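G., the chain you wanted modeled:
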Amino acid sequence: MGKRRFSDLHCHNHMRAHFQMQEKAKKFRRKGEFSPWTVIASNHRNHQKGVMGASYSQIDLVKCWNSNLRLTFNSLYPLERQFVKGIDPKIGKDKWFRFLTSAILGSKGIRRDLLQTAYMRIPDKVVDYFQSDDYDYWESLQRERDFVLMDSGKRIRRNEIHVPQALLREERLARKLANQHPRLYYAEDACYRIPTNREELQKSIEDDQEITMILTIEGAHALGTDRVQSIEEISQRVKEIKENWEAPIFFITYAHHFDNHLCGHAHSIPGMGKILMDQSERMNAGFNNDGRRILKELLGINGDFERDESLGYRILIDVKHMSARSRKEFYSLVGKCLDKGDRIPVIASHCGYSGISTLDRHIELEDCEVDDYTDESGKFNAWNINMCDEDIEWIVRTRGMFGISFDQRILGITKEDLKNNPKRNGIQLIWENIEAIIKSAYANPNLSDEEKPMVWKCLTIGTDFEGLIDPVDYYPTALEFGLFSNNLIFEIEQARKKSGQKHLAHLKSREDVEKAVEDFCFNNSKGFVVENYLG
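Predicted structure as tokens:
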């Protein structure tokens, strides 16, 4: 058996490099560093601690290469300006909290910029750009696309390293760490390829000597929904992506953290994030008419829910970050198409299990979503950003894909866990979520006996690395995927030995368990993209 391969259904391989370079492209070109392969030197101490991945890289292309991650779904994401704009104190929930933080930080100015730079590890000049009137999501999306395309198909001898704001001492320290930990900093004779058609995809995905990179988009705001004069402009941009872009977009995470003027988003920002960000506008709302129109155009279906070839190839929809109300309406559309024989695979690219039964129940519980809010078992994060039993049913019925996030909060770690049960914050946490999803499918009376086992083929890794997440202990970067997979084999092997485990009954041996883990780590997402690319 060869070396185990890995995939990631949702990550940002180029994020740190692009943030550092986008406002100083000429400078980086002169130094020969303007490339998605360039590693931005990390805070090694924070990496070792496994704290929030803002000050160190989790899944840059070098780590992909050295971890044998050979299929990556790389998400283009123009940073939402609400991350860097001031707070507007107003009547309503958190009024006094917002007033106090505004008084301390100011809505503009150096104190706020310093905190943003510290919180998100974005260069101050780039923060200024994001705050300016010049920042345009649609233009930024295209720049990001061009950045990741620039080295597609090229084989590099060795990548460069950039040390941000380097003093001589920091430069020396970075070079020393690179020599001590070459897998963190260097890739040699390496290549990634963004396939432009199905033939290229098939060839690339069978070639272990290159990373197959599939492009996705996080947030429909990236289409520039905040500035257009009419929905016709957004419609035209969807058409431009499908007809004129060199590489296809496989799926779009329709909602994200803030109002995209198309559909409601789920509550997603906890704790201290409230100091910097207000996501209340249209939070937990549903679709509006513009959102319904763009949704259908992305999927290539007309007003009668029938496939319309004139609308181009299908861009699939990722329901992560969609509010429960929005997901409920989306599944209604999916059901109408399914009744006509058109299967639209449902994707939840970087999620956890919520422990909640239905979307209606999630809607009833919206106001309960305080920090550390869990389901009745106390195990799972019950915010409606996570997937409930009804979501899982739709993923299985449509042969979709559920990517398991490596964000400890999303998976259900609470402050009490960190204090009293820190051992849970590891493979136990991830396996608890995976097993709960599988059990949910097996217990669902709406799924047939033939459909229930299909849940095993609908699960994969979806870390959200480089998305400012606080990772599960022991797996802070892609380089720990090998350790993770071995730990997962052990957990499932222990679980299958217990009697009466219907959802594990097909696993008769350790070899069966190893095959199931290899499917989870790579084969499931490989089969999914091969089946649905440019569908």
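Confidence is low (pLDDT under 50) at residues 88-119.

Shout if anything looks off.
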